[in-house]
Write a structure and sequence with these properties.
There is one protein chain. It contains nine helices and eight strands. By secondary structure, the chain is an alpha/beta fold. Helix 3 packs parallel to helix 4, helix 7 runs parallel beside helix 8 and helix 8 runs parallel beside helix 9. 46% of the residues are buried. It has one domain: TIM Barrel, CATH 3.20.20. Helix 8 links the parallel strand 7 and strand 8. The longest helix has 18 residues. InterPro entries: GH. It comes from Hamadaea flava. This is Arabinogalactan endo-beta-1,4-galactanase.
Length: 312
């Protein structure tokens, strides 16, 4: 299992302050301890939706990586860059142009490229709510695949099982209509966003995690993907506030990692290094291993220890 983390300071529209690169660097170095370590980042295309740009701080389009360029390709770090599709109206040409510009800007840094964010999840500020998202995924990913450098893995991510989200049958019906050569043949991995107990208590995080990965495998098989396609836990987390405690966060994250390993996931990326808003009374504010001021929570040492265990 390869590990990683999101290092920015934002969770959706929640953000109490800017990220601090000088604090981030040493914390990541200690987590990774020289091992290959994945750094997850997001750039979002809002297609001229200025109100959404202001809300999620995307007005600069491609100027939102947290750290200097060289940082992502030194010390064993590997950049997992998410290209998120959030226009107010369907605009495939604009999206493909954005992909081109993103690769011009960041292609030399990228190890993993994720085209769209949770296209099966139709909630605000997530790609599944955007008009034309199926075309953005099924045409955007092969478009990107044809341009990336050798060794770059290209994939997409989905949210948790349908019964947790209200159903995503229409998404899978659309995806299954594409022949293998038209879409699935271009995909190197599929990511899963996994938050089984983040927004409400759950008595069986281990079972819920196994179910989520197995559910995804079954759906992918129906949509013409090979059975051995790698699955990454592209996002996973549990808060230390809201209905949880710092100790509860440790317990949940330990279970998430152990269950993801048991389910055969090949990569696990935690959301996030620091809180988006430590004073928030909602789950989105306190996913971090550290507070918004970069003070370590118990979960930080827990994650560091778990990463180190991979050497044993």
């Amino acid at each position: 299992m390869k590990f990683g983390i999101y290092v920015g300071s934002r969770a959706g529209a929640t953000c109490a302050g800017p990220a601090d690169p000088q604090r981030i660097g040493p914390l990541v170095d200690e987590l990774a301890a020289g091992r290959p370590f994945v750094i997850r980042e997001y750039v979002r295309w809002c297609g001229g939706n200025t109100s959404l740009e202001r809300e999620i701080d995307a007005s600069g389009d491609l100027d939102h990586l947290t750290m200097p360029d060289d940082w992502y390709v030194t010390g064993g770090r590997e950049l997992d860059l998410v290209l998120s599709y959030l226009p107010p109206v369907a605009d495939l040409d604009g999206w493909l142009d954005f992909i081109d510009r993103a690769l011009d800007r960041y292609g030399h840094l990228v190890k993993y490229l994720q085209v769209t964010l949770e296209a099966n999840f139709p909630i605000p500020r997530i790609d599944g709510s955007s008009p034309g998202v199926i075309a953005a995924l099924t045409q955007g990913l092969p478009h990107a695949r044809a341009q990336v450098h050798d060794g770059v893995q290209v994939g997409f991510s989905l949210a948790e099982p349908a019964e947790w989200l209200g159903g995503d049958d229409d998404f899978w019906k659309s995806l299954t209509s594409f022949p293998y050569a038209q879409f699935a043949a271009h995909v190197d991995y599929v990511g899963l966003g996994l938050y089984p107990d983040a927004f409400s208590p759950h008595d069986d995080v281990h079972g819920a995690t196994l179910h989520a990965v197995n559910h995804l495998r079954d759906r992918l098989a129906e949509a013409h993907f090979p059975t051995d396609l790698p699955i990454h836990i592209a996002e996973a987390g549990s808060p230390s506030g809201a209905h949880r405690t710092p100790a509860g966060q440790v317990s949940s994250l330990t279970t998430l990692i152990d269950a993801s390993t048991a389910a055969g996931a090949t990569q696990f990326e935690l959301f996030a290094l620091s809180d988006a808003d430590s004073a928030s009374d909602t789950a989105l504010g306190t996913f971090g291993l550290c507070t918004g001021d970069y003070i370590r929570k118990p979960a930080y040492e827990n994650y560091r220890t778990r990463i180190k265990m991979e050497d044993l």
